[in-house]
Amino acid sequence: MNETPSVLSSRREFIKTTGRLAAASALAGVALPRVHAAGSDLIQVALVGCGGRGTGAAGQALSTTSGPMKLIAMVDVFDSRLSSSYDNLKQAHGDKVDVPAERKFIGFDGYQKAMDCLKPGDVVILTTPPAFRWVHFTYAIQKNLNVFMEKPVTVDGPTSVKMFKLGEESVKKNLKVGVGLMCRHCHARRELHDRIKDGQIGDILLLRAYRMHGPAAFFCSEPKPDGITELMYQVQRFHSFLWASGGCFSDFYIHNIDECCWMKDAWPVKAQASGGRHYRQSPEGVAYIDQNLDTYSVEYTFADGAKLFFEGRCINGCVSDHSSHAQGSKGMAIISAAGHWPSHASLFKGQRRTKSDQIWAFGAEPASLDPYQLEWNELIDAIRNDKPYNEVKRGVEASLVTSMGRMAAHTGQEITYDDMLACKHEFGPEVDKLRLDGPSPLLAKADGKYPVPMPGITKTHEY
Description:
The protein is of the alpha/beta class. The chain folds into two domains: 8-183 and 373-390, Rossmann fold, CATH 3.40.50; 186-366 and 401-433, 2-Layer Sandwich (Dihydrodipicolinate Reductase, domain 2), CATH 3.30.360. Strand 11 (321-328) and strand 12 (331-336) form a beta hairpin. It has 14 helices and 15 strands.
């Protein structure tokens, strides 16, 4: 990024290295052996987090064609989720899935056991809720493992500081690390980016992004039922709880925000925002207890004064829109038009999105250009051929900028990039010490509800 705000002074002031970070630092100078540099070598894979995205990522890893791949270990905190993931992957990939009972692990410490099954240069997939990302990444660095991690990679300032440092350690060790911002691997968007940089729509003055649809995934949650602990309920329904995921804002909206910043080749320097909680009960009249707002409206400002407006909404019965756009001094661009893929990337003269004004369109995007698969193809190619490949810094920056807009809405304050990085509110402190039967970082009030954002009242913390 050409206009990334300086974070060096903030890092010096706020990096407080934990024991795990120190251990990773001690190994920083150890060179990673060039295992797998020959394309025929077997790469073994461990899956940490067996939900839908983890299962999908493992399937994409096993679908690469540059050499043999094998899934040999899996871990989750829910046995039923691990079993379902294993069954689906085994059915789809047969002998490429070799995970006997002794390499299936349940529990918060299972990530260590799964990674211990790998050898240096193998790959671990980190697809748990993002609160655990820095914990798992620390151990992967110690084990000299290449990594694929899902977005977002951080949810607050303190974890962003940790992940920036860990990213630097992984670069020193020549580890290959992919981050699941798959839109960056989309061929249509890459060509669109090149054309924008060539000046085909002039200077970018405004970007607009929308993700508006009904409640998705675990956006909203009813009170905890009997038979499950508070911690396990929150991990199970992680989109509902800010400590686990950054809420719907961080998990749902990061792609639109990231692809717009990519087209601008800059990160915003500040954000102001608003949001609201409207229909906070189920159709049956049961009150929801999650921490999300139903609507978000964010104005991001870049260093040159250009703006990015983002609109998010999770309400049934309203107009749906899942798209991103760039407005230039000479024309406009569609970055994405109906979801993440295919992108429908195209350019127009002037500011009207009409066929007569269209000056370029990428055209059809066949299955072979699926960016979810392309990001894996590129990561495995880098591993096999020892190419520089590390997306951690960019992944942390995208996660931090997303959190910046969320915090602006939740506090009612203007939040700068450096404000977000320096914020001391760590949502899930000591997540590395959680136990299956232990307490959660977030406790319900006497009425069974959880603290929610109160803009203008809670100004330095989001809840």
